[in-house]
Structure formats: structure tokens, C-alpha cells
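Task: sequence design from structure.
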């Protein structure tokens, strides 16, 4: 379930892509913004801005939530990450993997897991070919109750 959806890009390459996207987006590169990129690259937990902020704040006391938000915003605009929307918890989650894959959202514990679905890449290529759009990614979300939460449910009669 947790196999890498897009294994050919290593973390250093992902960070380098994000850093140049920030420059293209007109943001000055600061250690804080670069740290947001490192935190995101290879992150499969689909973090919220607040979660990233909480993880980085101990190392960067001058970090503000606004910096995390505007860094995420530029990365979204440049197509490096996706805004995945809420997982039923009322906050926006970000997907660090922009390549087409299935996201499984648990409506009980609000965790989001990736599910590799190789057929989706072919569909994305087909849409890219026929639509005239330069497709940059896709947002595919399935909602349900994860195995862990199912095991906590009382047995049905
Ligand atoms: Zn769950
Ligand atoms: Zn995902």
C-alpha cells in the first residue's frame, strides 16, 4: 500500500525541482522555504500547512505559518505539489506527489494513503494527447473507512 508511486525521482531531485519552482514563482529562497521543500519531498502523509509548520518550528524559530502557506501556494501554482482539499477534518491537505495516483481518505481518522494505480498514468497520457491541455497532474480521491478504523468498529449482528 505504501509503495512509492513515482520511484524514479529521488528526494534531492524533488527538492531541486521545488527550489527552482520557487525562484520561477518569484519567491526569494530562504532556509525556511528550502526546509519546507525538504519536508515535503518524499512525504507521503499528505500534510496540512499546520503540520509542516509544527514539524519545522522547533528548528526554525523565526518560521511563520504565512511563510509555509506562501511557499505551498507557489509550489501548487507551479504544479510541483497538489492541493488535495479536506480529509473531512476541515483543513487543506497537500499532496507532494503530483503524478496521477489514487488517494484513499479515511473519513474517521482523516489519514490519506496513496494507492499506486499504473493504469492512471496511461489515462493521463491519453487525456494529455486528446484534450490539447498540457496535463500536469490529477486529483483522484476515494473516501472510506480504513482497515484500522474498521477494526475499532463494533461487530455487526
Ligand atoms: Zn481511519
Ligand atoms: Zn497522494
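Answer:
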Amino acid at each position: 500500500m505504501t509503495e512509492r508511486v513515482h520511484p524514479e525521482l529521488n528526494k534531492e531531485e524533488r527538492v531541486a525541482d521545488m527550489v527552482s519552482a520557487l525562484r520561477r514563482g518569484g519567491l526569494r529562497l530562504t532556509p525556511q522555504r528550502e526546509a519546507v521543500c525538504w519536508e515535503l519531498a518524499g512525504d507521503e502523509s499528505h500534510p496540512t500547512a499546520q503540520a509542516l509548520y509544527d514539524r519545522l518550528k522547533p528548528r526554525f524559530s523565526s518560521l511563520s505559518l504565512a511563510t509555509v502557506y506562501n511557499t505551498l501556494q507557489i509550489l501548487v501554482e507551479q504544479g510541483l505539489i497538489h492541493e488535495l482539499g479536506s480529509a473531512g477534518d476541515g483543513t487543506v491537505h497537500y499532496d507532494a506527489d503530483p503524478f496521477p495516483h489514487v488517494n484513499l481518505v479515511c473519513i474517521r481518522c482523516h489519514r490519506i494513503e496513496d494507492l499506486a494505480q499504473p493504469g492512471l498514468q496511461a489515462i493521463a497520457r491519453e487525456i494529455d494527447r486528446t484534450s490539447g491541455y498540457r496535463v500536469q497532474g490529477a486529483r483522484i480521491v476515494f473516501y472510506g473507512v480504513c482497515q484500522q478504523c474498521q477494526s475499532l468498529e463494533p461487530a455487526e449482528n
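The first helix runs from residue 11 to 24.
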